[in-house]
Amino acid sequence: MILDGIGASSGVAIGKVFIKQQNDFVLPTHKVTDTEAEIKRFNDAKEEATLELKVLYEKALEEVGEEHAQIFDVHQMLIADLDLHDQVVGIITDEKYNAAYAVSEASAIIAAMFESMDDPYLQERAADIRDISKRLIGILTGEKEVSLADINEPVILIAKDLFPSDTIQMNKQYVLGFITEDGGKMSHSAILARTMQIPAVVGVKNILTKLDKNSTIIIDGKSGKIYINPTDEELVYWKAKQEEDRNYKQKLQSLKGTANKTVDGIEIEINANIGSPEDIEGVLANDAKGIGLFRSEFLYMDGHALPTEEAQYEAYKKVIEAMEDRVIIRTLDVGGDKELHYLNIPKEENPFLGYRAIRVCLDQVDMFKVQLRALLRASVYGKLGIMFPMIATVEEIKEAKALLEETKRELLAEGIAVSEDIEVGMMIETPAAALISDVLAQEVDFFSIGTNDLTQYTLAVDRMNAKIAHLYNTHNLAVLRLIKMVVDNAHAAGIWVGICGEAAADTTLTETFLGMGIDELSVSAPSVLEVRKTIQQIDTSKIQLKL
Amino acid sequence: MKQLIVKVQGEAGLHARPAGVLVKKAGEFSSKITLEKDGKAIDAKRLLAVLSLGAKQGDELTITVEGSDEEAALEAVKAVIEESH
């Protein structure tokens, strides 16, 4: 049987399946006569749960470090909590219900209390309460959920959806690839798969009803096709394909040190997108010379409070020093799907059309200037480009530039050195910016086109919505025409223009982009060599654009 | 009985882990230890109760201790709240 999904991370995987079960069991609810015995069962379950969590803590500590392991420590403390204990014992003693039901009731009350609180951090603790409740009930009823940590042979993981907590527990060395029923190309699990460089297909409706634990499957992360219990022929074909894939990846390595030059001698810049200084290692290993997009928001999303000027300065400096070529750092881009709890931005009906990115920064000037100070201070360590996100009007870019100038003057007055040679640019992510790119080009040194948002805004397609994921298409004529318009306007004004969205790594679009005259492509580190290879095979004099 | 007003120092406030440390520390003493914020008083030996205060960095908490080891308990609890991060 062949199923179609959305290819989220390329590559071929062949193997047995491992199904992450849904929790559809019915909670046993009955009255007990021996309440003392029932309380003892509850206490025993608590002890066993604590032991399980100790093991999980150790595992997480070893694999992902203390910060991520802490959650299992907190779960142990929640299980030991006296309020939970008193409530459960109260339900058993007074209402004479069985322990599993009592745990379920007590945790529902406590979870509801957390959910009703104002602090988003505490609202999330409701999930922790449900998690420990599930664990205790599992022990009490013997209906234990199979844990992803128990995977001990190579498998393809199948799930309705994968959550961050699942991925911590997952035994990564045995996961060949995964398939989820929910999610689109930009869902958490899809991004994770690309980072881990394992094949993945998402948005496969009802796959859980179409296979069982004995099924063998093939997934092709590129086309999004899934073969359940494949025929011998299919198996032979895809094994060969997998081998080819491996050879291809090895061959790409031989392109290191070569130029990003087309057949007719046109050189294109290929840079890397990164989210933190730790990504530099991968960038250098894949032979990118510069950074086309450093997403600074990850510095902000790490902790519980705004990063200090010093912490930002250190991070920027580290990246600028490590790279031979220019490093373009995008100023804070929060809102939309990226929330910062400590900023207390109220929930919005349409976050992607709301208070996000430059709109937040121009509104919270004090916060913005901390970042600008850190950037300017770091500029002396190499070649820096500063890029503003989500610009829709000329006023916005003017205002952002004025703040940058003001900050620069303040630093100089304090006797702090700032580089003379900083490029200032902006992202083109809104159709509005594309349409007035001739005017905007007068204001900046470069444009970088963010195709993810530009596509979503142009086509009015929410990229997080799996139901309409098929409508999200950067190849769409409307999107391509906007990109062409931006390139033409940039060149007419004498500035360079690049692409830093996902489409930059889409090799089926490389020829189109080169035909438009794009100057730079910025892609995730693992895609650098593949894009280089594609460029080396293109002859721009033979491209015929059909736009 | 002893009473003291302290300011939460950790940037994460009394979130899950710091709250856990506090509860563990409070449990080492026999004195009754209460924390009060904005008129809401809770037992410092109970994790869920401490969490439910939702104390953030800069919030002021009133610690009240009563019992045979109240002096040591007050010192210890104060230290945790002021150092938690």
UniProtKB/TrEMBL annotation, chain A:
Residues 32-59 form a coiled coil. It comes from Zhenhengia yiwuensis. This is Phosphoenolpyruvate-protein phosphotransferase. Mg(2+) binds at E429, D453. Residues 152-224 form the PEP-utilising enzyme mobile domain. GO terms for cellular component: cytoplasm. It is found in: Cytoplasm. One of its GO terms (biological process) is phosphoenolpyruvate-dependent sugar phosphotransferase system. It catalyses: L-histidyl-[protein] + phosphoenolpyruvate = N(pros)-phospho-L-histidyl-[protein] + pyruvate. Belongs to the PEP-utilizing enzyme family. It holds the Pfam family PEP-utilisers_N.
TrEMBL record, chain B:
GO terms for biological process: phosphoenolpyruvate-dependent sugar phosphotransferase system. It is found in: Cytoplasm. Residues 1-85 form the HPr domain. Pfam families: PTS-HPr (PF00381). InterPro entries: HPr, HPr-like, HPr-like_sf. The keyword Cytoplasm applies. One of its GO terms (cellular component) is cytoplasm. Keywords: Cytoplasm, Phosphotransferase system. Signal peptide: none annotated. This is HPr family phosphocarrier protein. It comes from Zhenhengia yiwuensis.
